[in-house]
Amino acid sequence: MPGGRKSKYFTHVEPYLDDVKKLRRKGTKEKDIAKTLGVGESTFSDYKKKYPELREALKGSTLDLVDNIKASMYQMAMGGFIKTKTTYRYYNGKRYVDRIDEEIMPPNSTAIAMSLKILDPQSREALSTNVVLDNSDYLENQSTLLKKIKDAKDEN
Which of 17, 18, 63, 112 is placed for a possible disulfide with 77 were both Cys, Cβ 3.0 to 4.6 Å? Predict the structure, then answer.
């Protein structure tokens, strides 16, 4: 056959660029996206080099994913309330109640440390020394760390 085998890009990838973006925003790895689309990992990599629209779809979606992860981390650092929706059903499948609950999410010390490493150079240096606080200082230090994160976030 002259010209070789026809590329799967136009049948297996291009029509699904919106799905590629959605999968990437959810954190799906590129190798898994390739498998979902029915193309090999190395072929998918070649397509990224050859087709700028695929490269842009992945790049933009990855930036969105990173922004969402950062926002989640900052929310975990600050603590707050989480709304959860619960739907109960009869045995025959008909919905009979929707309930929205609010749960208190306490600040997460790991998220606090990670946020400070990102936002504050002085904290980055201090946290790199792996200083362990004793329990008596915990609440006082947690309040100070939360204030620094809030101030840094307000500056951005």
Answer: 112
User: How many C-beta atoms lie closer than 10 Å to residue 15's C-beta?
Assistant: 11
Give the tens place of pLDDT for each residue, 132-150. Answer: 555 555 556 666 767 776 7
In this structure, what token pair is assigned to residue 5?
Answer: 């085998």
Cα(13)–Cα(8) distance, integer angstroms: 7
Q: What would the pLDDT profile of 21-53 be if each residue is shown by its tens digit? A: 999 888 889 999 999 999 999 999 999 999 999
| DSSP strands (E only) in 26-94 | 80-89
